[in-house]
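Hi V.,

Quick status before I head out on leave. The structure for the redesign project is tokenized and pasted below; the design run finished overnight.
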């Protein structure tokens, strides 16, 4: 699977570890940056990842910033993106299984890369359940179609 990843300056280290982890699991990783910890504007990287997912260049995306909140807010501005901030593996499983999230956002301040990798693994391994959840996701998509250019 092709995964686009990006971060702000607070998430560069996590992003590198996550990229290596995904590659070790035979995923193709598209790293949109940044490459160092110099201060950057997180929306630039959120939009880059979200556009790759929305455009079909990547099946899923992962974004990291200090809190994860800004990345989720920015990514969700892109039509076709369902970004979810997940602080636990359980939340990542629900985001995929119930909400068909296609972009995962993580908080760099969490500090434990092992926990972050567990969250990433759950996000990658969980399939959308469909059924009653599809009806709800379809309502969001229909609303988005009516309101976003």
């Amino acid at each position: 699977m092709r995964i686009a990843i990006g971060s702000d300056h607070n998430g560069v280290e996590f992003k590198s570890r996550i990229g290596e982890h995904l590659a070790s699991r035979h995923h193709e990783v598209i790293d949109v940056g940044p490459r160092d910890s110099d201060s950057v504007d997180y929306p630039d990287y959120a939009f880059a990842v979200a556009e790759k997912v929305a455009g079909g260049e990547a099946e899923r995306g992962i974004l990291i910033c200090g809190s994860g909140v800004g990345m989720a807010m920015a990514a969700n501005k892109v039509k076709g993106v369902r970004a979810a901030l997940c602080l636990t593996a359980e939340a990542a499983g629900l985001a995929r299984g119930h909400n068909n999230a296609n972009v995962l956002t993580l908080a760099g301040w969490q500090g434990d890369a092992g926990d972050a990798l567990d969250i990433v693994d759950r996000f990658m391994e969980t399939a959308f359940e469909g059924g009653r959840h599809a009806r709800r996701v379809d309502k969001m998509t229909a609303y988005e179609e009516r309101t976003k250019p």
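Above is the designed sequence. The beta strands are 2-7, 28-31, 60-65, 83-85, 103-107.

G. will cover questions while I'm gone.

Best,
W.
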